[in-house]
């Protein structure tokens, strides 16, 4: 998600820093973004000039202080784990300028709770991008309890400059899209463990019968089964039994079948 956000940010004309605590991961992210630009040029989606200009606005860092010191907007895209988000937000609160906006690319967690990890609740908000970021047109903007109107307006403007449509919603667990997506995906796992159909047939039925761009298993393999399980646990704790993770989802995660990133999830990507 971070790579995709950096791609659309730099392409939109923003000076962009990819920050990761692991130097190898930061460098690999930069290389992956270059490949995205190359594909865009190859498919005539962007020009070579656009590619060169965007890459000129993009750099990597492994230092919070160096990465954040001049940033007007920080978009965090770390896993949906409170301890990790707390560490990032505390670092941002300490290193960023007083006017810097902090946006969390969370899909289920409370922006009010995340804001409480730092010292600028009025400048904290959720920007929920969708995967793959460079193709999906929506950013779901979620305001916390103390998010200011000025922060909402600024973040909407940034998203629109990135070429995105926006919706602004008030905080509630799962927002709009994650609640719906998690329910559909979880039900697909129940169908699979009940023997209702193969993953390919369930995906095909949802794509062609409900006109979804991807089937639920294709989507969870892209997002990551571990990420989906974390989302389900968060929603289950807040919204009750209808969000209890399907046992088969938990079993796949325990087996290390996390989706495309691990080479195998519902489908096998080893080749």
UniProtKB/TrEMBL annotation:
Family under the similarity heading: Belongs to the 3-hydroxyacyl-CoA dehydrogenase family.
Catalytic activity: 6-phospho-D-gluconate + NADP(+) = D-ribulose 5-phosphate + CO2 + NADPH
Pathway: Lipid metabolism; butanoate metabolism
Domain 3-hydroxyacyl-CoA dehydrogenase NAD binding as annotated: residue spans: 1-171
Record's protein name: 6-phosphogluconate dehydrogenase, decarboxylating
Segments crossing the lipid bilayer: none
Stored InterPro entries: 3-OHacyl-CoA_DH (IPR022694), 3-OHacyl-CoA_DH_NAD-bd (IPR006176), 3HC_DH_C (IPR006108), 6-PGluconate_DH-like_C_sf (IPR008927), 6PGD_dom2 (IPR013328), NAD(P)-bd_dom_sf (IPR036291)
3-hydroxyacyl-CoA dehydrogenase C-terminal domain sequence ranges: 174-269
MF term (GO), any: phosphogluconate dehydrogenase (decarboxylating) activity
Glycosyltransferase in keyword set: no
Domain of life: Bacteria
Site, as annotated: Important for catalytic activity: 128
Keyword field: Oxidoreductase
GO biological process: fatty acid metabolic process
Enzyme Commission number, as recorded: 1.1.1.44
């Amino acid at each position: 998600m971070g790579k995709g956000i950096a791609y659309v940010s730099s392409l939109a004309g923003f000076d962009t820093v990819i920050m990761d605590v692991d130097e190898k991961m930061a460098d690999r992210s930069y290389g992956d973004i270059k490949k995205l630009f190359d594909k865009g040029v190859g498919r005539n989606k962007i020009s070579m000039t656009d590619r060169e200009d965007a890459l000129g606005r993009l750099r990597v860092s492994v230092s919070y202080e160096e990465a954040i010191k001049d940033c007007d907007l920080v978009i965090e895209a770390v896993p949906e784990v409170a301890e990790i988000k707390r560490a990032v937000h505390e670092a941002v609160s300490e290193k960023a300028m007083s006017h810097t906006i902090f946006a969390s690319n969370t899909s289920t967690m409370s922006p009010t709770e995340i804001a409480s990890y730092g010292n600028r609740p009025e400048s904290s908000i959720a920007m929920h991008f969708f995967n793959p970021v460079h193709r999906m047109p929506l950013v779901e903007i979620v305001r916390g309890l103390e998010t200011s109107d000025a922060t909402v307006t600024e973040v909407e403007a940034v998203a629109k400059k990135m070429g995105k449509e926006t919706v602004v919603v008030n905080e509630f667990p799962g927002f709009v899209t994650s609640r719906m997506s998690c329910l559909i995906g979880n039900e697909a796992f129940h169908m699979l463990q009940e023997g209702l159909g193969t993953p390919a047939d369930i995906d095909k039925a949802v794509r062609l019968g409900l006109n979804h761009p991807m089937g639920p298993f294709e989507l969870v393999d892209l997002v990551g089964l571990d990420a989906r399980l974390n989302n389900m646990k968060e929603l289950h704790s807040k919204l009750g039994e209808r969000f209890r993770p399907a046992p088969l989802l938990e079993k796949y995660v325990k087996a290390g079948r996390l989706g495309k990133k691990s080479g195998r999830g519902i489908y096998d990507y080893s080749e």
